[in-house]
Amino acid sequence: MAPTISKIVQTLQPSATIAMAGMARELRAEGETVYDLSLGEPDFDTPAHIRDAAVQAMEDGKTHYTPAPGIPELRKAVADDYLARHGIQYKPTQVVISCGAKHALHNVFTALLNPGDEVIIPAPYWVSYEALVQLTGATPVIVQTTQASDFKLTPGALSEAVTPNTKILLLCSPSNPTGSMYSPEELGALADVVIEKDLLVVADEIYERLVYPGHKFVSFATLHDELPERTMLINGVSKTYAMTGWRIGWSMTPENVAKSISSLQSQETSNPTSVSQWASIAALSGPQECVTEMLAEFTKRREFVMKRVAEIPGLSCPEMGGAFYAYMNISEHLGRKYNGVQVDDSTTWCLELLSQKKVATVMGSAFGTEGYARASFATSMENLEAAFDRIEEFVKK
Ligand code: PMP
Ligand code: GLU
User: Is residue 39 in contact with ligand 2, taking CB distance under 6 Å?
Assistant: First the structure.
C-alpha cells in the first residue's frame, strides 16, 4: 500500500510556474520548438566575475559547512548594499542568508506564524505565497485588486480585511505577476494602516533593481521610523544578477526574528551553499554594469511586449513599472472554441496555447485571478517575436 501523505502536504499544489516550465521542457525533449514565456528566470548567463569568484572559492577550499545564517562577509555585504542604495542601516546580524528568496519567505513565515493567524495577500499574487503560508497552518486571506487600479491594494481594502487574527500583510513591489509598482505615496498610505492596526509586513523586494524609466522604487521599511521593527524584508541575487540556479536569497528582519530563523535553518538546511555565498559577495560588491546592461535589454523587451499586447485584439495588460512579466487580460477570449476545443478559463487557455501553438505562459488562476495569463519576457527578443505572432494567430482563429 502506498504511504499516506501528511494532511498539510496533500493539499499542496505544485508550483504552477515550475509545472508550466516543466511541460515546455518535456515538449522540447520530444523535438518540438517551444516558445517559452513561462518562467521568471533571466536568460542571461551569470556574469563572468561572479562565476570566477565561485571558482576561486572552490580553489581556496571554501567548500565546507558555513555558519547557519550565512558567512559574515555576505551578511555584511547585504547590509552595506542596502545602506548604500536605500540609506537604511541594518546590522549584519539582522541578515540571514538562505537557499533563495523562496526559502527566506518560508523561514520568515515559519518563524512568525501559528495556526489561526491570518496573512493578507493581495491578488494577483506570486504562486508560492499562499502555499508557503498554508504550510505553517496559518490562513492566507486573499484580497482581490483590479486592473483598473493597476492591481494595487488600497488602504481602505486593507483596513477592511484586517481582523483580530491578522498578523502579516504581504507586499510585493515591483509585482510578480503584474509588474505593478506602488508609488512612495501609495506605500506610505498602506504603512499608516499597518501602524494603526499593529501589523507586520513581509516586503518582497526581489525585483527592486528591475525598475523601468519613469518609475521609482522605495524600500518599504524606509517610509516611517516604526517600520523597520515591523518589516521582514526579502531579497536575493536570482533576478538581479541572473543567478537563479545558485539559490541565494535573504531576509532582513528584527534581530529576534533573525535569531529564530538562524536556529530553524540550522535544523533544516545547515546553511546555504558555501560557494554560492562567495559568488554572491562578488555580485553585490563587484562591478554593477551587468545589472544596467540586463535592465537595458529588459527595457527593450518590455516596450516590445507592451506594443504587441496592445495590438492584439481583445488583449490588454497593465503598464509594467518593474519586473519582467506582462499580465495579459484574456477574458474577452474565453468562452470560445479554439480548433474545436471549448476554452472557458485561463488554465485551459494556457494549456491549449501550449498544445496548439507551442507557446508556454502561466494561467492567471495560479496567481489568484481568473481571466489572465502571465507572459514572462525574461527571454530573447527572437523568442518573444515568434511567441507573440503565435499568440495573435491563436486568438484570431
Ligand atoms: N519572490 C518573488 C516575487 C519571485 O518572483 C521569486 C521568483 N522565484 C521569488 C520570490 C523567489 O526567488 P528565488 O527563490 O529564486 O530567490
Ligand atoms: N519566480 C519565478 C516565476 O514566477 C520563478 C519560478 C518560481 O519560483 O515560481 O516564474
Answer: yes
Dist. CA 23 → ligand 2 center (Å): 15
The b-or-e profile of 127-136 (16+ CB within 10 A means b, else e) is: bbbbebbbbb
Report how far residue 236's alpha carbon sits from residue 204's, in angstroms, rounded to the nearest whole number.
Answer: 10
DSSP state of 2: P
Q: Which domains does the chain have, with CATH numbers?
A: 7-45+290-396 (3.90.1150.10), 48-285 (3.40.640.10)
Q: Which of 239, 247, 377 to mutate to test the pocket of ligand 1 (most atoms within 8 A of CB)?
A: 239
How does pLDDT run along the chain (397 residues), one tens digit per residue? 899 999 999 989 889 999 999 999 999 999 999 999 999 999 999 999 999 999 999 999 999 999 999 999 999 999 999 999 999 999 999 999 999 999 999 999 999 999 999 999 999 999 999 999 999 999 999 999 999 999 999 999 999 999 999 999 999 999 999 999 999 999 999 999 999 999 999 999 999 999 999 999 999 999 999 999 999 999 999 999 999 999 999 999 999 999 999 999 999 999 999 999 999 999 999 999 999 999 999 999 999 999 999 999 999 999 999 999 999 999 999 999 999 999 999 999 999 999 999 999 999 999 999 999 999 999 999 999 999 999 999 998 7
294 lines ligand 1 (CB under 6 A): no
Please state the pTM of the whole predicted model.
0.96
For 318, residues 6+ apart whose C-beta sits below 8 A from its C-beta are: 147, 150, 151, 178, 179, 180, 327
* CA distance linking residue 104 with residue 123, whole number of Å: 21
Ligand 1 atom nearest the C-alpha of 172 is 3
Q: Is the CB of 206 under 6 A from ligand 1?
A: yes
